[in-house]
Structures are given as C-alpha cells and as structure tokens.
C-alpha cells in the first residue's frame, strides 16, 4: 500500500517560505501516517524527509543565509533570523546553537550536504517565543517543551526563561492538570510529575487513545517568570459535541500581546506534535486540521491579552472522543382525544457508554400554529433525579393530573389526565447525557429528541343525533331485513343511552345502557325461533335483524334514543330523540322453482348402481321431493319409489337410497341394478311456505315442478370383455414389469369372475411340442383365492399377483426379469352365475389379447474417454498409454480390454497387441509376436476404471496409433454372463522418434589460394551433435563446375575422401577415385571428436575447385543396429592453385624422364664415348707404327681430307668414261690395285665420295665427342647444385 501513495511535492524555495514550509510539513506528516513510515527509526525518517524536500531544499537543510532547519523525528522547527548573533557549531555529527545565557539546545542535523560540515557558522536568529518540539540537552523528554529567549542584547548572561505548555488529556488522563514553572537551573519536569497519568482500568478499556491538547505560548520578549495554565482534564466528550478549552498565561511583562498555539499529542506517539491552530500563524495547522480551521469549525477566541479559548464546534471521531450511544425512541403517531380524556405516552431512552454519566429526560409540547416559538416544557426528570414541570403545568402536576413515571430501566411514561384544549400540539421526548468535569461543572455531552406525536383534542359537546340505515326498503317474503341505528355524539362510551325500536307504533325491542334487549310481546316467540336478532354492535351502533320477512312485516320502523344525564344536584334528566320513519315493503312470495334431473348413465350394466341427482333452483321455502318409476312406454301409472321432505335428509329402502345432499339437491341410488329396473324415473319437487303463528302454524304449497329420466339396464353377458395391457412391453435384464388384466364390467358379487394368467416362452410356436402351448401361471378363483399353475416364472420367487378391490384389475408383477421371463402372456376370464340351488354355472368365457414381453439387455452406459492425444518419445524411453472408463452401466460390470495398434503405413487393419479377459486372463496378439514386444510390453489395471499399457525401450517401429477396446460384461438374473457393449477409447498417436536432430556443421565459407606443389588443408568442424553417442561418417567432395552460379550435378561432384562411422576409410557415402595408401597425396586427421581435417599434398592445378565436407550422423538403435540420423554439409572452401613459370629447373624437376636424362643418362654416354675414343686412339697408334719412316703422321681427319683433295685432282685431269660403260661398271672392278684407265675416273670419284663421307663422319664424331666432353664438364660443375635443388623440390612436392 505504501508504494501506491506518492510522496509530497518538493518544498518551494520561492515566495512565502513560511507558508511553503507549513504546507510541505503537513503533506509530509500525512504521508508518513498514510504509508506507515511513522513507525520507522529516526535515521530512516530523516532520509525520507531529505529525499522529499528536493535537491535545492536539501542543500540548505542545515544552515542557510536566512533559515535554520532542525530535523527531529518527523517534526521540523523553523527559526528565522534574529536581531542578535548565535553560534552554530558542529560536533560529532550534531549541530548545536549557543547564545542567550550559554544554554545549549540540541538541534540535530543529520544527512546534511557536505558544504555545511566543518567550521562553525554564525547566523542571526530572532526568537519566535515558545518553540514547540525541541529537545533539552541531557534530559530526554516524552513531552515537548520550548524555550523563550530574551531579545535584549545586553542581557545575554541573564538566565533564560522557559514556558511550559499545559495539557488537556481527553478520556485517557484521569489526573488534574499541573502548572509548571521551570527555572533556569532546573531540568524540565518528566512525565512522572503527574502531567500525564494512566486512568482506571475501565477507562483504559474504553479509551481509543489519549488526546493531548498543548497550548504553546509565543512571546516576543519575556524577562519575568511566566506560567501557562490550561483547563484541567480529563474532558470526556462524545462525537459531534462542542468542546472549549481555556488557556491563560501569567507572569509576563505587561504591554506585550501573547500569541497562542494549540497542538495535540496522541498517546501512541507521545512525543509527536500535531498542530491545530495558532493566533500568530495562519498556516499553522497540519493538513489533518487545516480544512476544519479554514471552515471556522476550529477557532480561537481571545478573551483578553493573556487568555484565549479554543473552540471545536463539532468534535470528530479522529479527535479521540467516545462514541455517541444515546438513543431516544418514541413512535410517531397521530392521536385524537376529547376534552377530559386521559393521554399516556412512552419514551425509550438508553445509552451504552462506560463513563459515569447522568441522564435527564423530559417531555415537551410545541404549538403547531407557531413553529418558531420555543417548546413548552411539560415535565422533566433532571440528571439529579429531580422531577420538575413547566410554569403552566406545575399546578396540574401538583393536582396529580400530570405524571412522569420510570416504568423500567429505559422506559419513561408520560400521563396527562383531564386533557384540555391547550394540550393540543406536537409532543416529543428529549433526553440529554451529562458528565461532570474535574472542575465540578456538568456538561451535556449530547441531546436527542424522539419522533413527534400529534395530539388533537375536541371540545366537549352534549348534543347527539340519530340515523337509521338499511340496504334497501323493498323485500320479498322470506328475505332478511337489517336496520342499524347510529348515535352520533362525543364521548359516547362515557354517556348513557337507551335505544327503542318501534314498528307501526308498537314496540319491537328496547336496549338499555347495559345492552340487554327487552322484546315486545309479539316478537318473543320469533326471537326464540331464531328469526329475530337485536344487539348492540358497538358503542354507538344498534342492530335490528328480522329473518324470513312476512307480508305483515311491511310498515314504518323508527329508532328512538334516550340519554339519561346526572345533574350537579344529583337528579337525573332524560333527553330523547327519534329518527325518521323507515318505510319497509314486503311482497308476497311466488314460486319460481325449476327442477333438473341427471343420472350417472342412461345405460348401466347389470349389477351396477343407478344414481339420479335432482336439483331444484330458485327456492325460497322448504321443499319436498317424490321419486316415481314407470316403464319405458309409460303405459301404466307411476310407481312411487321414495319420498323425502324437509325433515328427512336420508332414507333407505332395501337397496334403494334417497338423500338430501343440499338444501336444493336430492339424490336417488339403486344398487345391484336388474334388467327389470330399466324404465322412466321422475323427480317431483314441491315448495312450501309456513303461514300463521304459534300455535296455529300451517304449511302452504306455493309451487311444484317435476323432471324425468330414462335408464336402460344392460345384462352382464352383453358387455363382458377382457383386455390385457402392459406399460413396459420391453424391459432390461434385472428390471421389473407389470401385466394388467382388465375385466369389464366391474365386479358384481352376484356374477363373479375367475381370471387366469397364461404364458408361452419366447422362441416357441403354437404348434411346437412341449414349449409351444400356453401354460397356466396363476388363477384368481371366483371365491377370491389363488391357485398356482405348473409354469413358474423366476423360480417362483420373483413373481407376485394382486387384484383391485373392485375385482376388475388383475395384476401380474415380475421382478428381476431374465431370459426365462421373455415370451407371450395372455389373460382369460370366466363369468359365473349362481343358480337358485346355489350351484354355479358358466355364463361367458373371454380371452384377452396377447402381450409380448421382450427382456433385453440393459442400455449400455459404457463411456470411454474419447480424448485424442499425441505423444512423442525418444527411442529407448518408456511409453505409457492410459485407457480410462468415464462411466459404466452398473457397479457389478466387468471389463475385457483389448489393446490395438494402427501402424502409420503398411497394413490397413488394426492389429491386436494384447487382450485382458474379464477374468483377468492375459493373452498376446500376433502383432506382439511379430514385433517382438512380449518382453517390452506391460499391461496393468490401475483402478477399476483405469487401465494402462507400457512399452519399455521404445523403438522407432513402435510408432503408431494406439487405442483400447473395452467390452462390458454383466450377469443376468439367472447368473449367466453376457457381453453388453463394446466401446473404444480415444486415439493416442505415439511417435517414437529418433533424437532431435541437432547436427550442425560449420558453414563458414573460405577461399584458399596455394601454389602448385603446396599442401591444401581442408577442415570440417561439427559444433553441435544430436547425441553424445553419435558417430560420424565424413566425406569430402570437390566441385569443378566452370559456372559457379549453377548448382553442380552429382556427375560434376567428385568424391575426394571418405571415412565411415566405423572409422573405415572409403566406407562412407562415396568411393574416392584415389585409393588410400602409402603413396597417396591425401592425409586424414581427427584431432578431436568434432574436428576433422584432410590435407592434399603436392597441389596441382587440377586440384582447384569448391570443396566441402558431407557429414552423416549415425546412432545405435535399441536393437543394436546402426542407423543414419542426419546429414549436413559444411560451407564451401574455394581452392585456387597457382601454376609455376616453366624454367629449366621447373621443367627438369617436374619431368621425371628429363630429370633422369639430364642427371643420369650423361654418365653412361660419357663412358661409351670414352671407350670409343680409346679404341680410335688405339687404332691410330697401330697405323702410325706401320707408317714409320713415311711422312709425318697426320690426324685421321686431316689424312682423309688430304686423300680426298688428291683424288679430286686426279679426277679433274682424267676424262670421264662413256656412259655405256659406266652403267656396266661393277663395284668389284674398282677394288683392284691396277685400274683400267677407262674406269679409273669413275673409281676415283667413288673413292673421293667415300673419303668425303668418312671425313664427314669423323667430323661429326669429333663434334659429338667435344660436345659430350663439354656437357660432362658442365655436368660435373653443376651436378651437385642441380641434385640438391631437385631433391629439395621433390621433397617439397611430397
């Protein structure tokens, strides 16, 4: 609740500071009371105060240039600037004010801004006189005190003067007020000095709290010793009363006007001041009293300069007063009295206060003509229990005509004898509750008045008048006459009147004051016969009533009234008055009767009753009735059956009965009608009138009427019939059914009937042997006894029969019907007639209709809970399905439960899982065997109407729709069990799913650029997996599609590497082209369970493409078989391979053939050439030895060159041979030493050619040898460098 109440608005620092502070303080204290924060500790309240004041106010809360604030609990004191200096010092967190004689007053300033801490500050303070709610240093006080400081600068060393406000304790304090004078060296008085003391136990129980009113005196200058005196307490007041409290001050310097402040203290918070009103500050009051002060409900009346009176016009409940319990109750009424009558009024006055109070009760009279005039006091019982009366009523009270009696603890009765006209007006009761204050004065706490009674008094008048009234004045003989004589006068009961009735100058009757009539001689017999009545209906009404007027009663009737009055001399005088004549006319009586005859039936059955009713209308006199009979043709005279007159009401003539049902209704009854009773019946009514007087009375016939009725009697045989009926042609097992056999006509003792119930079981036909015939069940004999047959229903214990009193209804009842009671029923009746020789003969035999009774099984009330639901489970968990029966036919029902399952796909028919017979036998279905559920399925009966099915270690194949089929079995009355109904439950969709797929493969795409022959590292990270038991199959694919925007087909994707969930290479979802092995460029690595990497060594340009890894998550199902749960692909890794420039080094090192040719083939070639050179050298040396002594040996090349030149010269000088011979030259012909001249040129030419060729070959060989030598030398120089470079390159490639 506290959180819903907003704090007050921050205090405004501009404008009227005093007014702003008073408004803020009132709102803040109301806020503390409303939120309950007033019970908090002092530091908490200070924190709340500083927060509510606002930042600007909080900065100046301790000491500002003009205002000093002292925070103490919830009260704040404002001290304005004074005309002299005071020292404000700060020590240990508390500010103290010094000055005015050196006395210190604690003014604690906690939670002040930092700028107010430190050195002392000097402020000019002007005293406001008595400042309320300050603490005296060294003396904790429960009551507030204030200090008055002298305003004389030169008198600083003089002692300070202290004024102590007085207190008025309402209700709570029982002790008197004490005037205190505090001297400079004294400690203010404590609460034990008698200022506030506890009252008696009764007062404490009654009191709702102590209300302390404090008068704080404000003085400008005070030098002398002052005393403030407040009216002594306690004051007990009720809610709504007017309270005044006096405050007086003495001992001050004359000429100074005193201001007064009024405050209140509650006993629950004795040190908390609640300001009410001040003569100095208009905004002094707290918000609780501000409105009442502004509305002048609370005011201060200044009696003099040193005396003031506090006025609270209407005390409220929150002012801590007692409840007003005074009640004054008197009923509001209007009374009419006659002068001289007696008046009594009662007033109920009660109170429930526990205070010692007195009551005063009085009766007052207010004139209705002048409402503004003050009420007249009749009589009053004062608070001192002294009875007094008003001026005009003192003599009447002394004479005993005015009384006020206290009849009970709360009842006060006013009695006024001999009412006078001046007593007319509004009477009311007024009560006041008084209490005695401590000063001995009495105070009326409350006054209340009762409802007013209006009293009207009529003056006395001795005259009277007479009036005779009647309904009408024309009558017919035999009608009654009523005459009333009314006396109109005042105070009739206290006057003596006698009334005389006169008819045609002859007295009829005289009624005296005692109301005893005296009859005339002609009316005594008439009054004795009850034909005349004379009586006094009320005090002023007399009645004359004549029954059965006669023609001689016509004439004039007069009422004469005589009053006997006693004179002052004691004599009696009579005054008589007569009424006007009342003319009464009596017409002779004429008969206007009519007769109506009715019968119960115009055609009755033999043995029934013939009943006639004769009604006579418009009768005035007595009647007589004659019943007659004639045959249907009315051929002969009528036969008188019975007669009844006015003196007889009933008559019996054998089996004939006549009766006067009412004054105008007569009946005739003929019992056991016979065929000879049929004919015409007549009713003749005669009206009579009595004439004459006693003893010569005679009867005269004044009218006669008759009516006839014809009745036919039907024999029993003609209307005899039997019918059977049943309200329940079909019943349920265990129910009851009734069969009714109705025999018409009704039973006649002279012609009785015998009734037999017959039965043929269901399922048999009329021609079948044995069961095909009707068998007798029970027979009601004509004597009224029972005779059971051979066929018994329900073993004879569930069959009952009875009949009605009229022997027309015969009932067969069967309880707890079963199959044996189903069949056809028939009722047969035999009519018997008793002969004159007392023998019996059959008159007629009738058979009823057939009644088919079907005994069915009861309607099934089996209801299953049809709620369809879906359940999802993880594999290897427990699946539980309930089958609930919401209602059943009987408490004895037994159930057989069948559990079915419908597969999601596959078989269309629902398959039986298991069944539980009503006997509790358990049997598995084919589905349980097929799916190997015997070990995992469990069925149980949780309650009589709740069955459960449990699947342990659920598999994915267990998914499907499950439901139960319940059969209800009941036992028939014969003890055989039968199935009543079957009902299926709602469907439960069971989904046994694999673990939730949470497989995630990092899908971050990346670009990788490597140089040719470098390594390519492909990573595959699995941040999330579905289960901790998951295993993964990882494959890497590469897409080499030229168009990156198009999704490549499966043919364009190439499997790079694959490893299965069983950690077998190549056992994944694809088969890589490159088989893994020692020479493979692929290197697979699994650093953690979710981190995989593949490295391609020796990157080639053909390795460029978009790589991604394909991950398959595999789990082990409950049957220990691995299945693939989910698949996912990683992000693409785009690989670019930068080709190297074709240099000699790259060409040689990249081509194995060239590498071997350059670095290995030169060695064998060099060896061969070296051998060839050695051989040539060897031959050259041999040829040189054979040519020793000849010319200098030339190299072979030069030698061949020289030979060729010589031969060329020879050929030039030799003529060519003929062509014919040249063509016939054989090569062998040029081999001889001696050549023919003819062939010599030709042979020389061939020799030259041979030499040239040899020379060319030698040059070529020499060139090759030089080249080889150069290559060998060059190879030897750089072979080591090239080998190192190639080895490093090959290692890098690998």
Detail the topology: elements first, then pairings.
Elements (H helix, E strand, L loop, with lengths): L16 H19 L6 H12 L1 H5 L8 E5 L2 E5 L4 E8 L2 E5 L6 E3 L13 E5 L9 E2 L9 E3 L12 E3 L3 E4 L30 H6 L4 E8 L8 E4 L12 E8 L8 E8 L2 E10 L8 H8 L3 E7 L2 E6 L14 E3 L3 E6 L4 E8 L7 E9 L9 E6 L5 E3 L4 H5 L3 E5 L4 E6 L8 E12 L5 E8 L3 E6 L5 E6 L4 E3 L4 E9 L6 E8 L2 E6 L5 E3 L4 H5 L3 E5 L4 E6 L8 E12 L5 E7 L3 E6 L6 E6 L3 E3 L4 E8 L5 E8 L8 E6 L5 E4 L2 E7 L2 E6 L8 E15 L2 E19 L1 H4 L1 E5 L4 E3 L4 E8 L8 E9 L13 E6 L5 E3 L10 E5 L5 E6 L8 E12 L5 E8 L3 E6 L6 E2 L4 E6 L4 E9 L6 E9 L8 E6 L5 E3 L1 H5 L6 E7 L2 E6 L8 E12 L5 E8 L3 E6 ...
Parallel strand pairs: 19-28, 30-39, 41-49, 51-60, 62-71, 72-80
Antiparallel strand pairs: 1-2, 3-4, 3-6, 4-5, 5-7, 8-9, 10-11, 11-14, 12-13, 13-17, 14-15, 16-17, 18-20, 20-25, 21-22, 21-26, 22-23, 24-25, 26-27, 26-28, 29-31, 31-36, 32-33, 32-37, 33-34, 35-36, 37-38, 37-39, 40-42, 42-47, 43-44, 43-48, 45-46, 46-47, 48-49, 50-52, 52-57, 53-54, 53-58, 54-55, ...
Helix pairs in contact: 10-11, 12-15, 13-15
Structure description:
Strand 1 and strand 2 (75-79) form a beta hairpin. The longest helix is centred in the C-terminal third of the chain and has 54 residues, at 1240-1293. The protein has 1294 residues and is mainly β. Residues 61-212, 219-224, 1189-1193 and 1220-1224 have low confidence and may be disordered. It is 14% helix and 41% strand. The strands form 17 sheets. Strands 19, 21, 22, 23, 26, 27 and 28 form a seven-stranded mixed β-sheet that branches. Strands 30, 32, 33, 34, 37, 38 and 39 form a seven-stranded mixed β-sheet that branches. The protein has 15 helices and 80 strands. Helix 12 (1162-1186) runs antiparallel to helix 15 and helix 13 packs antiparallel against helix 15.
